[in-house]
Amino acid sequence: MGLFDWFRKNKQKKEESKKYKEGLEKTRKQGSLSRLTRLFNEKDKVDDDLFDQLEEIFVMADMGVETTVKFIDSLRDDERLDDLEDMKLLQEIIVDKMFDLYLKGEIVNSNLNVNKEGLSVYLFVGVNGSGKTTSIAKVASKLKKDGKKVCMAAGDTFRAGAIEQLKIWGDRVGCPVITKEEGSDPSAVIFDGIKFAKENGYDVLLCDTAGRLQTKVNLMKELEKIKRVISREVPNAPQDTLLVIDATTGQNGLNQAKSFIEATDVSGIILTKLDGTAKGGIVLAIRDVYNIPIKFIGLGEKMDDLEYFDLEKYISTEFARRIGAKEEEAFLVGDGDGKPTGIFNVTGGAQLGVSAGSATAITADEIIDLVYSLKAPYRKNAVFLMNDATVKAIRKLKDGQGQYLWQPSLTAGAPDTLLNRPVYTSAYAPTIEAGAKTIAFGDFGYYWIADRQGRSFKRLNELFATTGQVGFMATQRVDGKLILPEAIKVLQQKA
Fold first, then answer.
1. Residues 45 and 135 in one domain
2. What is the pLDDT of residues 268-286, one digit of tens each?
3. What 3-state DSSP class applies to 481?
4. Which SS3 state, helix, strand or coil, does residue 243 take?
């Protein structure tokens, strides 16, 4: 759980939005969004240097050179940048441009196409290792939860172990898998799958295919044969041909996918392992280069961690978290002037608990003293809060019995502990330097946050209608203050 969410009193989030947020955590903390945050905070005007830095950020985010150049050129030409006084408005303009880049003036449907008159057949293609077989199982699970009767056909008869792998997934999901022996004609397997599905009243057949790329000609012939069989047995099928791309391979994944797009009529993209990359720009690159909509994104390894792609949610999640970052910064070091009063602020913040004997170091005794400087009633729910750099400095500290004060968590998702108390970190907590308040310890439930309204992401259809554009506006009103300063104590370095 992130510090920002931990602070907030209102945690009623829609489960799907939570998955987007948690699934894209790596992009937020390590990727382009963190760099954008720093850039917008540092820059006070729109100039060539800003565009150069934006270009570098988006290229590094796997948006690709071609797409990035197109994006930056469009941004440069936007009249709203003329005499821009508030750099915060640049966020709205970039979000607007991202929508334009993805939508291309079209209504883009991320839902699966459905055969309304009988069996729906979906064909899955992609290179080996892209997560294709796992994605089939996840789609099967999702469709079953939607009330569909689903079966699968193991059309990848080339890769060793592919058939057994799909059978294992079929058992987990509770879907029958139609198979033939290894090396069989894939189209024959899928023919048997269609026959089985029809005879047993199934709504959906999911078809695996080989991911080999020895020659484009062989790949094309194999896929053409499979599609002929499908269309002969089920009119207008396959309803979708889904290309599975591993997001962590970046531009290399796009290059590999080119062969499949040239070999068959790909109607949608499944972007797997998006939670494992800090380069979320690949979403826009895929749409721009191939003009194919993204149908699903993978946000984790669990069966239900495959989500229908929601453009507005994706972009708002990515960019609205910059609002969250600014809030977190204000909650910690805000001076109360037009912003919340931060916990580490001199006036209105936490009380001084311990003065360190050094400007550049912290001792075990000082941390113990900090704990006991807090009154007993507040210690019950007390936690530590500090910068990662501070954590690095104190991880080797021991008590008088030679035991490490720091204890790493043995449970996934649980925080590490210091003196058996949870430790939370924030990039906005002060680092160790002369006079800095570096560690806070206490009951943070006494830091109250007032949301005047929830975070909103509004589409402005009319505002830019005359220029053929659509605007988007993100807003949030918030305040925060420690209502009982004695509930949190801080350690301050020697001045």
1. no
2. 989 888 776 555 677 788 8
3. strand
4. strand
